[in-house]
Design a protein that fits this description.
The complex is a heterodimer of chains A (880) and B (114).
Chain A lengths: L1 H37 L4 H12 L2 H10 L4 H19 L1 H30 L10 E8 L2 E7 H10 L3 E15 L5 E8 L3 H5 L5 E2 L14 E4 L1 H8 L9 E4 L2 E8 L14 E4 L4 H6 L5 E8 L5 H7 L1 H10 L2 H4 L3 E6 H5 L3 H33 L1 H9 L4 H37 L14 H27 L9 H40 L9 E7 L8 H16 L4 E7 L9 E4 L4 E2 L12 E7 L3 H5 L3 E4 L12 E6 H7 L9 E3 L11 E8 L14 E5 L10 E8 L3 H15 L5 E5 H8 L1 H35 L1 H9 L4 H30 L15 H27 L3 H7 L1
Parallel strand pairs in A: 4-9, 6-8, 16-21, 18-20
Antiparallel strand pairs in A: 1-2, 1-10, 1-11, 2-10, 3-4, 3-10, 5-8, 6-9, 7-8, 12-22, 12-23, 13-22, 14-16, 15-19, 17-20, 18-21, 19-20
Chain B lengths: L10 H12 L2 E2 H11 L8 H14 L2 E7 L5 E7 L1 H32 L1
Antiparallel strand pairs in B: 1-3, 2-3
Helix pairs in contact in B: 1-4
The chains are: A alpha+beta (880), B alpha+beta (114).
Chain lengths: 880, 114
């Protein structure tokens, strides 16, 4: 609009001036001629002399125009219109450039936004770069943890930290008042907030005297709870609420942006109230999680070195089999929080940089190809007196128009992609749901756009502004062609790497989806129940509720099997212990190390039927055993092979808590061998597993259980019925229902996310490479037009010409493919930890990707090849 | 014959303003007048005369209007504006200062060398 108006205004002025200048000059010439004639020269001669004396008419006119203020702006608008016309005149070229820029800018800024949240997000603690997570690392818990027996020793004697603090985890708790709610209560040490550098927005932190056993109960509440439940009551401090039935005084409110260092959700902070003296004596003591603030100038590595003697101390406490497998770690808090996604984030960043590289190379080669096809026009303009600066300016403007459109489309693509990413992201990707297009991402994309403009506009402008007369070819242009061919070769190599990566992940995902989990998860409904502390204070009450629930649900309509366990395969939480703590009656305990982890669950007799887990030997649990005083266990096949190699395990006695006092290590009778079931997530290897029977005895129950129902009725109807049944027993009980299929699908979220992302980039990369190849092949075609014309004139057939162009394209494709395969071969190792049942050098995948790439490139070069067959030999011969 | 580029920067503007101070004139007239008055020493090339006229007009020192020439042809006449008159006075003063300074330098040189 503004441009139009200005153009119109300028145009008016410009026309008038031109006429005036012409008329003025004409008058001047007449006067000059008249003067000559007065000296006695004949009229034609006088006119000729006058013209010669006056000099270049156009130059004078041009110089008069240049005097006008705003002359520059006028020229700019003129060039701008010219550029716009150029863009519209050649839609194929323009679309290719805009598409390239859109994909490059869109993908990179979307990924930048996502990765930014993970890699560069500021943590909501003061001077958070100095906060570290400190603790022991063991196969059973690969993330740092501490034990009460060691923690206080470390806290007292450590040197590298300003302060060291701990939390003992988050548990569900009930706010038992009118309108009770289930909350998450975190227990923290009294120096927790000061160490993290957090000050309550209302009230105060815990006092050391409040962090003792039997101290008066106090709590800090989250900002969200303060807002929703207490309506931002400014005088909240001092108010007494009941948590799990205990009167607790609120002493403060946490800041809005507060989060636990391990990112658990927490509504209430309570003091740990550990008996420090007892913990010091205890072995191993209460598990807790420790965090510390480094002294200024101390790195995590230095801190780790300084903690060595303390680690030695802890190691002496550890039981002998553990010692070789226990290590310790000090690492930045951010690394701990994004433990799993860190690598994925870097891979993503690497991918997007590859795409960006391809996009830049594309824009460069397309712009140069375009310049080449307009070389003639440029030479004419230069010959007519256009200055080098003017030609350069025109070149920059044209690429500016293109990149502006491309950047705009890129920003729109960013928004779309971000939406998409959030939609498909697994819940394990922290903060992704909060990612939104921010100013920095925009600046990021726009600076890429600007870089493309100035960089390539300048490069192509300079190379063409040389205006090497009107000769049709030069050594220089061939040299530049070689550079572009190299760029395309690089591009093809990069896109093959992406393609191979995408194909590997797709295959891996395919395998993951089709694998045998060792059970059947169709037509299975689950409900996770956690009983409140107040309503169900004892194990007896808890068991009574669950047994009543079993009776209610077991004989419902369409229920084929019904079981209760404390956890569910194939992923997520389950109980674990080390192999060395198992022992077979009459055999020595396992003595070389921990022996790795063994998973186990509490189950009721129908568990195997409900999940369709085959019983390989033995009868499994029976209802008779429910009332028995002795204990029973079913072991998985892999555990059986390990504990009873070549023996019959049925009826044998095993001890499941070796090294515990004898009264806590009762014998269990093996009554069955079950098939192996995935229990470490979809991709991870499976641990040997055993199942303990949950008998009708309070000692076998606790406050949480998972109901498993196999039913032939539709899941939605069953789910409603089940909710009704549970509500009829306890209407206030929070439950989490869903099909097992949904749970399993959720486990595949992360690999699906990875697969889709990498495939997206692979497609983008391939598309860009095709566009680039098309651009360069077309350029070469233009360069060789005279040659092709001569060939046609000499009788070459269409097939010969197509072969000629294809051969020149293949000269770029083949080295690129070879380099790409080699590069992908080396780089796919990075992906190996993400792959499932497909090697990083899978032959079929590599062959498939290569064939796909070559097929696509042949298609891309066929377009200019066919165009080449239409070259008119007469026209080209005439030009030369 | 000195070409226009031989004139000192800004001198052409001064000459044009001074010429127009007497009466409104067209481009051809201005060139002729300067040549006449300077007794053919200063010949103004058209290639620089017209750009200079446009420049002065854009600066607002002179104004143009179409009128009839002595032989009844349509011609563009330039005349000095009030601003232009002030500018002429300033430029004259600085020119006088400059030429005085130059002649003094040259004069002293002449004395030394003689």
């Amino acid at each position: 609009m503004i441009v139009e108006l200005r153009t119109w205004f300028r145009y008016l002025l410009f026309r008038k001036n031109l006429k005036e200048i012409d008329e003025e000059i004409r008058f001047h010439l007449e006067q000059l001629t008249a003067a000559k004639m007065a000296e006695g020269v004949s009229e034609p001669n006088a006119r000729r002399q006058a013209l010669i004396e006056f000099g270049g008419l156009d130059a004078t006119r041009e110089r008069c125009e240049q005097q006008r203020p705003g002359w520059w702006a006028g020229i700019m608008t003129q060039d701008f219109r010219y550029a716009l016309r150029g863009v519209l005149h050649n839609p194929a070229f323009s679309i290719a450039v805009v598409l390239t820029l859109m994909l490059g800018i869109g993908s990179s800024s979307a990924v930048f936004t996502v990765v930014d949240r993970i890699l560069f997000r500021p943590l909501p603690y003061s001077d958070s770069s100095r906060l570290v997570s400190v603790g022991l690392v063991a196969p059973i818990e690969p993330q740092e943890f501490m034990l009460g027996g060691s923690y206080y020793e470390w806290q007292d004697n450590q040197k590298p930290f300003v302060a060291m603090t701990s939390e003992t985890g988050v548990e569900p708790c009930d706010l038992t008042e009118i309108d009770p709610v289930r909350l998450d209560c975190a227990r923290v040490e009294n120096n927790f907030l000061p160490t993290l550098g957090i000050t309550p927005v209302v009230g105060r932190n815990f006092l050391p005297s409040e962090d003792r056993p039997n101290a008066p109960k106090v709590a800090l509440i989250s900002y969200a709870l303060w807002r929703t439940r207490f309506h931002r009551d400014p005088s909240i401090a001092g108010k007494v609420i009941r948590i799990d039935g205990t009167a607790t005084e609120i002493v403060g409110v946490l800041p809005q942006e507060f989060e636990m260092p391990r990112l658990q959700a927490a509504d209430v902070l309570l003091p740990e109230s550990l008996d420090v003296a007892a913990q010091r004596r205890a072995d191993p003591g209460r598990p807790l999680w420790a965090f510390a603030r480094l002294k200024a100038g101390v790195t995590p590595e230095q801190a780790k070195a300084q903690l060595e003697p303390l680690f030695e101390y802890s190691l002496r406490l550890a039981p002998a089999p553990f010692r070789r497998e226990v290590h310790y770690a000090v690492r930045p808090l951010r690394d701990r929080q994004f433990h799993d996604v860190h690598r994925a984030a870097w891979i993503l960043l690497g991918l997007v940089m590859a795409v960006l590289l391809i996009a830049c190379a594309n824009v460069a080669s397309l712009l140069t190809a375009r310049r080449a096809s307009r070389q003639h026009e440029m030479s004419v303009r230069a010959a007519l007196g256009a200055s080098r600066l003017r030609l350069l300016q025109a070149a920059i403007l044209e690429s500016f128009v293109l990149s502006a459109i491309g950047a705009l489309a890129g920003v729109m693509l960013t928004a779309t992609l971000l939406h998409l990413f959030i939609g498909i992201s697994p819940s394990g990707m922290p903060f992704l749901s909060a990612a939104k297009l921010d100013a920095r991402a925009l600046i990021f994309s726009l600076s890429i756009g600007l870089f493309c403009t100035l960089g390539f506009g300048l490069v192509t402008g300079v190379s063409r502004a040389r205006a090497n007369a009107l000769t049709s070819r030069s050594a220089l242009s061939m040299q530049r062609a070689r550079l572009r061919q190299f760029l395309v070769t690089t591009q093809i190599a990069a896109s093959l790497v992406l393609l191979a990566g995408g194909a590997l992940l797709t295959r891996s995902f395919w395998n993951l989806q089709r694998q045998n989990l060792g059970m059947n998860y169709e037509n299975v409904l689950t409900a996770t129940i956690s009983l409140g502390q107040t309503a169900y204070p004892t194990a007896e009450r808890q068991m009574a509720f669950f047994e009543q629930l079993q009776r209610t649900l077991r004989w419902g309509p369409g229920v084929n099997a019904m079981a209760m366990s404390d956890s569910l395969p194939p992923g997520g939480y389950h109980r674990d212990q080390i192999y060395a703590s198992l022992r077979v009656e009459g055999q020595p305990p396992y003595a070389s190390g921990t022996g790795g982890n063994v998973a186990w669950r509490w189950v009721t007799p129908e568990y195997f039927r409900a999940l369709n887990i085959p019983l390989i030997a033995g009868s499994g649990f029976t209802d008779d055993e429910l009332s028995s005083a002795s204990r029973f266990v079913v072991i998985s096949r892999s555990l059986e092979e390990r504990m009873f190699p070549g023996q019959n395990p049925l009826g044998r006695q095993v001890y499941l808590a070796n090294r515990a006092p004898a009264d806590q290590d009762p014998p269990y009778t093996v009554v069955g061998i079950a098939g192996d079931v995935k229990n470490g997530g979809l991709a991870a290897g499976e641990e040997p597993e055993y199942y303990r029977l949950r008998r009708s005895r309070a000692e076998d129950w606790d406050r949480s259980a998972v109901v498993i129902i196999r039913s032939s009725l539709p899941a939605a109807a069953m789910e409603r019925w089940m909710r009704e049944q549970i509500a009829s027993l306890d209407p206030a009980l929070p439950i989490d229902t869903g099909t097992l299929q949904e749970r399993v699908a959720k486990l595949a979220d992360q690999p699906r996310f990875e697969m889709l992302l990498v495939s997206y980039f692979a497609c983008t990369g391939l598309l860009l490479a095709i566009v680039g190849l098309y651009g360069v092949t077309s350029f070469l075609m233009v360069q060789r037009k005279p040659e092709i014309g001569i060939r046609i004139a000499l009788g070459a057939s269409k097939g010969d010409i197509v072969r000629l162009v294809l051969a020149s394209a293949m000269r770029m494709v083949l080295p690129g493919t070879i380099a790409g395969v080699a590069l992908a071969f080396g780089l796919s190792q990075v992906l190996s930890s993400l792959l499932f049942e497909v090697g990083p050098h899978d032959t079929a995948t590599f062959c498939g990707s290569t064939v796909l790439l070559i097929a696509a490139t042949i298609t891309a070069s066929l377009i200019p090849a066919v165009a080449a067959t239409r070259v008119d030999p007469i026209a080209t011969l005439r030009v030369d | 014959m000195p070409t226009p580029t031989d004139l000192l920067q800004g001198t052409l503007d001064l000459l044009i303003l001074q010429t127009l101070a007497l009466e409104p004139m067209h481009g051809w007239g201005i060139a002729q007048r300067i040549q006449q008055v300077s007794m053919d020493v200063l010949q103004i090339g058209q290639g620089s005369l017209y750009p200079a006229l446009y420049r002065l007009e854009y600066k607002g020192w002179i104004k143009s209007e179409w009128g009839n020439s002595e032989n009844n042809r349509r011609a563009k006449f330039y005349k000095l504006t009030a601003t232009g008159r002030k500018q002429l006075a300033t430029e004259r003063a600085s020119w006088d200062r400059l030429s005085e300074a130059i002649s003094q330098v040259l004069g002293k040189r002449a004395e030394v060398s003689s």
